[in-house]
Amino acid sequence: MGTFTNGQIAIAYDDHNPEGAEPPLVLVHGHPFDRSMWAPQVRHVARDGRRVIVPDLRGYGQSGVVPGKTPLRTFAQDIAELLDHLGVAEIVLGGLSMGGQIVMEFHRLFPDRLRGLVLADTAPQAETDEGRRVRNAMADRLLREGMGGYADEVLAKMVAPANIRRFPAVAEHVLAMMRATSPVGAAAALRGRAERPDYVASLSRVRVPTLIVVGGDDEFTPIDDARLMHRLIPGSTLAVIEGAAHMPNLERPAEFNEALSRFLTPSAQ
Questions:
Q1: Which InterPro entries does the record match to this protein (predicted)?
Q2: What are phi and psi of 91, to 5 degrees?
Q3: 18, 40, 79, 127: least CB-packed within 10 angstroms?
């Protein structure tokens, strides 16, 4: 593990296979998780010889926690600063859920640093008025009650119920990540996401290869959201992972990794 200090915040990260093929793949976790959610993809992609960088976002995992509000812009800037620290100019950037929205924000701010995008189980639309109310109310609840009750409630939407029964280790991993997250960091991210901009227009300007992945049973970001992004981004590829909910990279890692490999190495198709 490495640690990079950005201002007063320590950002924890892993840099796998640093001498591997360029451009590196950078993977951004969702809420309320940490970089360990990408373990199956890190093993798979690094084994194929590519460099893979996975940070813990501020407020999550082993990175520093900041109270208040963390906009998506701040998360994207942290990633850019980490890349500067590592001397990395261009990347393929992927993210799931909130991580996917951070990828969209990174594209809006730093399009020249991108060689490819992976958008998994995410949505480009701005938050609605009701969504803002719900996210801020949830932030208040997490600060008041902690992560345990929330984690128990959303597990069956993060991981499809059938997969909770079939793959208990996956469900336990997802639950453990959620319970271990700092309520302060999670609340700050929720308040930031409540004010997220609309990325529909900026996605239409994407000019790099893009893979869009979605679990077939995802309730948080349904297939229609993935189809919208597929229509918006010229030449993008859409992969629907059947039998998975919001975490297809953990619920169906073989299928997710196959789609990722085809995207990263198109000559292998």
A1: AB_hydrolase_1, AB_hydrolase_fold, AB_hydrolase_sf, Epox_hydrolase-like
A2: -145, 165
A3: 18
Joined together, the tokens standing for residue 227 give 């189809």
Helices 72-86, 183-193: axis angle to 10 degrees equals: 110
Question: Is there a contact between 117 and 208 (Cβ–Cβ < 8 Å)?
Answer: yes
- The four Cα atoms 143, 95, 119, 41 give a dihedral, to 10 degrees, of -130
- Using DSSP's 3-state secondary structure scheme, residue 18 falls into coil
**pTM of the predicted model as reported, rounded to 2 decimal places:** 0.96
- Tally the domains of the chain: 1
Q: Which residues have CB under 8 Å from 144's CB, separation 6+?
A: none
Digit-coded pLDDT (tens) for 142-197: 999 999 999 999 999 999 999 999 999 999 999 999 999 999 999 999 999 999 99
Say how far apart CA 25 and CA 145 lie, in whole Å: 36
DSSP 8: T
Q: For residue 221, what are the domain limits?
A: 2-268
**What CATH number should be reported for the domain holding residue 220?**
3.40.50.1820
Strands 91-96, 50-55: pairing kind:
unpaired
